Amino acid sequence: MSVFHNYTYGADVYDQTRKAEAFEIWLGALQRFAPVPASEVRLLDAGCGTGNYAEVLHPFVRHLNGVDFNPKMLAKAKAKLSQGVEAGSITLEQGSLLSFPFEADTFDAVMINQVLHHLETGKDFARNGHRAAVNEVARVLKPGGLFMINACSHRQLRDGFWYNHLIPTALDTVCARIAPTTMFAQMLNEAGFEITARHVPLNAIMQGDAYLDISGPHRPEWRAGDSIWSLAPDKEMGGACHTLSALVSSGQAESWLATHDAPRIHVGQMTFWIAVKN
Ligand SMILES: C[S@@+](CC[C@H](N)C(=O)[O-])C[C@H]1O[C@@H](n2cnc3c(N)ncnc32)[C@H](O)[C@@H]1O
C-alpha cells in the first residue's frame, strides 16, 4: 500500500490525468523478449491501479492478472476491464507486491508501472521495498520470464517536472524512496535478472495534456495525478501556489513555465527497464 498517498480519494480522479504512457514499449518487449509468443503470455500487472496499462495490453496476451493493494483503485480497474473479466481473460484481485498471492513460476511476464516509490519495508525502507518486490517478481516469473519496470529516476524527478523544484522537501523525500539507478540495476542482477534494455521515452508525460497547466497545483484532483504532492508539507505547498499565482498575475507564467519545463525534453520523466529472469 502507499503510506503517503491517498488512493481512496485518488481513485475517483486518477484517470482525469493519467493513462498508459509509452505502453508501446511494453508491447514491443512482450513481442521481442517474452519466452513464448505474446499471444501465449500470462502477464501480471503488479500495482495495476485503475487498469490503464492492463486495458491496452491485455488484447495482446493470453491472460492478464492484475493485483493492487487499494480496493477502490481495483474497483475502477474491474469496471474498466469488465468485459475481459467476464470473458475469463482477466483476473483482478487485491494483493501486495511484497507478497503476491501466486505460486512460484506462474507468469511469463510481469510489469510494474509507477509503483516502486510507494513501497516500504524495514529501516532502509524504500530500498528494502524495492528488493522485496524484485525478489517476489523473480519468484512468480517462469525461467526466461520477462520483467518490465516503469519508474522515475532521481534525475528525471529533479529535472523532468516543471514543478518539483517548488516543493523541495517532497522532492528529496520521493528521491529517498527510489533506489538510484545503479543500485536498482544491481538489485535486479542479484535477484537473477539480466537487464536487456532501458528506454527513456522523451514524449511520455506523466499527466498528459494536463501536465502543463500552471494552475494545476491549486486543485486537489490535479495534484492527485502525481503522488509527489502528497509529500509536500502544507507550508511548502502554500509557497508553491503563491509563487505560481504571482507569476500568473505578473504575466510571466508562460515564459517561466517554458524555462522550467525545458530540461524534460532531454531527460524525460520515466525510465522503462526490461529484464529477463535467468
Ligand atoms: C501511481 S499508481 C500506478 C497505477 C498503475 N500501475 C498505472 O501506472 O496507472 C500506484 C498504484 O500502486 C498501488 N500500490 C502501492 N503499494 C502497493 C503494494 N505494496 N502492493 C500493490 N499495490 C500497491 C496503489 O494502490 C496504486 O494503485
Which distinct ligands sit in these coordinates?
S-adenosylmethionine
Question: Which term fits the overall shape?
Answer: globular
How are the strands ordered across the major sheet? 3-2-1-4-5-7-6
State which percent range the strand residues make up: 15-25%
CATH superfamily: Vaccinia Virus protein VP39
Radius of gyration: 19 Å
Q: What is the CATH top level name?
A: Alpha Beta
Order of helices and strands: HHEHEHHEEHEHHHEHHHHE
Predict the CATH topology.
Rossmann fold
Helicity, as a percent range? 40-55%
Give the class from helix and strand content and strand pairing: alpha/beta
Instruction: Count the E strands.
Output: 7
What's the architecture, going by CATH? 3-Layer(aba) Sandwich
Could you give a quick summary of the protein structure above?
The chain starts with 6 loop residues before the first helix and ends with a strand. Helix content is 42%, strand content 17%.
